[in-house]
Amino acid sequence: MDTFEIDSALDMHLHLRDGDMLKLVGPLTSETFSGALVMPNLVPPITTKEALLSYKKRIKEACIEDKFEPYVTLFFQNDYSYSFLEDIKDDIIAIKLYPAGITTNSETGVSSMDVEVLRPTLESMSKLGIPLCIHGETNGFVMDREKEFMPIYESIASSFPDLKIIMEHITTKDAIELLDKYDNLYATVTLHHLLITLDDVAGGMLSPHLFCKPIAKRPEDRDALLNAALKAHPKLMFGSDSAPHPKHKKECCGCAAGVFTSPIALQVLTQLFEENNSLDNLNAFISLNAQKIYDFKPLNKKVKLEKKKFVVPSSYKFKGEDVVPMYAGEVLNWSISSIEDKRD
Amino acid sequence: MDTFEIDSALDMHLHLRDGDMLKLVGPLTSETFSGALVMPNLVPPITTKEALLSYKKRIKEACIEDKFEPYVTLFFQNDYSYSFLEDIKDDIIAIKLYPAGITTNSETGVSSMDVEVLRPTLESMSKLGIPLCIHGETNGFVMDREKEFMPIYESIASSFPDLKIIMEHITTKDAIELLDKYDNLYATVTLHHLLITLDDVAGGMLSPHLFCKPIAKRPEDRDALLNAALKAHPKLMFGSDSAPHPKHKKECCGCAAGVFTSPIALQVLTQLFEENNSLDNLNAFISLNAQKIYDFKPLNKKVKLEKKKFVVPSSYKFKGEDVVPMYAGEVLNWSISSIEDKRD
Fold first, then answer.
1. CA nearest A199 in B: which residue?
2. What is the CATH number of the domain that holds A32?
């Protein structure tokens, strides 16, 4: 097959940042994606309706107009009242929970993952039908952090059977196995965790541009993630976790975590699914699964790809910002030939 | 205790490089260490008597004269003849074996670790009493490379019971356990592998200056190494594997592996052994064990340390070279108060 069409691609885990960085990366996502679930870990994080609507407005201004829907999220707090959540319910797609200090801008996350501590907000969310997205890592040894979080997922999933829980950016075989154990557990997986292991980060030279949180794990973990994605496991969605960091913060002594994949995600996914004879499942993985899980209808956007060499830019720039994408300077086998946008 | 004396400190695994880098790091080691086993992985590697003696001469010229003995090594090759080894025997302390491509400048290492392939050289070494130092890693997944090498150590140790085999820079619990299984197996351990795990390299921000090969492993591995060192396990020697890389090759996109510890090793080891109530064992770990294992008498050099703050320089420079040490800019509790050098 030399051409392929992706319908209404959705990125269910995206960092768009703010300011000039938003103006740089917003257009890159909104060019090819129909919509994206946007993370709320700004500084300060999004915890009020005012901040939420204002951020949504800034995203819409930065993105390609009328061709992209940002699905915004709230930063989880233990003390959200039922009435506050009821009022904000229609403006958000989900609430994102971060353990405190676990990743970029998560300092004000929850300091205890005890179900009883989280209960007030979770009970309201469950009643109101607001999904819960979780960054599921403990502060243990870096290779064990996600695995150690599994009992916490289990405890929340069993305590709130009506709450939809999304395990974000999963990286392990353990998380894939947990997916099938609880009806109300779902997951996103990134592009890079389908492709790399710790070997790619630190097995040869050290590769700052592949350093991310959660860190890439073992070959058997990557294989389990890839197999589930290729067969479009119905509880698994694509979420790039594409996280732009300025070049100087990646190539330095003590560099920040995050891989920037938005502008190359569709091309690489097409190549990956084609190589594994799974192109028939790509639209489910990248759009239909998310529509069913979150129960919404995205903007209609068709991206046509063709099997034609595409050289990934060495970096993307806007004003003072300079972001290096995954596969910078390398050649991909698939490129985007046209984008068709139809409002229903 | 507020003072401590180290007698004839030996670094049994050291990279001194060549040229200006040798002129920068040679004096830093030879100031405090009585002697060091110097690795032969130059470009090209040391494989002839001429190259060996010429390198030894350059090291002596670069180091503090008459106060330091470089114990030089040959780069293992499958085709060394018995007569060549017999002739070079008294000029070397050991021969170092690298699997091809496994670390810096090891491209011309052996391409098979099959005992039968290695047999000719190993049989000659065994007969002549030349110890074998091994960089024991497979080319598997980065966290498994040393563990996967254990059967190869076992195969060589059991095939050549009279050959002294040193497992270099061990990083795992598995290697510590193997030490006690074969009479002819010994090991060196670095300073940094007594102190760090993968968490320190990639658990928070990425730390290029702690990136090394073999990569730092899990907490239980570090604990096993530290316990063995603190009790001065008689088959374990200190070998810093101190490896200077120019600053620009560490703080860049795709950085080189190696931690530079030579100028701070004695201070940090004293602090570490004191904190663990093991100062009585430090001289065995850092000198006596190596003297017994390799059967030699080092130059007499006494280093007196006192419990007094020492700020580690942010880098060491010589001409165009600029090397960042471990703990750059940080404060240590012990400093060197005097160095006494006596020729017997």
1. B142
2. 3.20.20.140
Residues of A near B (Cβ–Cβ under 8 Å) read 141-143, 197-199, 201-203, 205-209, 211, 215, 218-219, 250-257, 324
Contacts of B105 in chain A (CB under 8 A): none
Extract the annotated binding site of B for Zn(2+). 13, 15, 96, 135, 169, 241
Q: How far is A179 from chain B (nearest CA, A)?
A: 26
Chain B residues with beta carbon closer than 8 angstroms to that of A203: 141-142, 215
Nearest Cβ partner of A206 from B143, B199, B211?
B211
Give how many domains chain B has, as a whole number. Answer: 1
Note whether residue B53 is domain-resident: yes
Q: How confident is the model over A51-91, as pLDDT tens digits? A: 999 999 999 999 987 789 999 999 999 999 999 999 999 99
Q: Which residues contact residue B94 at a Cβ distance below 8 angstroms, ignoring those fewer than 6 apart?
A: B37, B71, B73, B130, B131, B132, B133, B166, B294
| pLDDT tens, residue by residue, B93-121 | 999 999 998 888 888 999 999 999 999 99
Which site among B247, B253, B255 would you substitute to test the A interface, given the most A Cβ atoms closer than 10 Å to its Cβ?
B253
Is A248 annotated as ligand-binding?
no
Task: Verify cis geometry, omega within 30 degrees of 0, for the bond prior to A40.
Answer: no
CA pair distance A225, A255, nearest whole angstrom: 26
Residue A256: which domain range? 11-261
Does B48 reside within a domain? Answer: yes
**What percentage of chain A reaches a pLDDT higher than 70?**
97
At residue B318 the predicted structure's pLDDT band, cuts being 50, 70 and 90, is confident
| Catalytic site positions of B | 241
* ipTM, 2 dp: 0.89
Q: What is the mean pLDDT of residues B73-82?
A: 97
Looking at the domain assignment, is residue B283 inside a domain?
no
Please report whether residue A212 resides in a domain.
yes
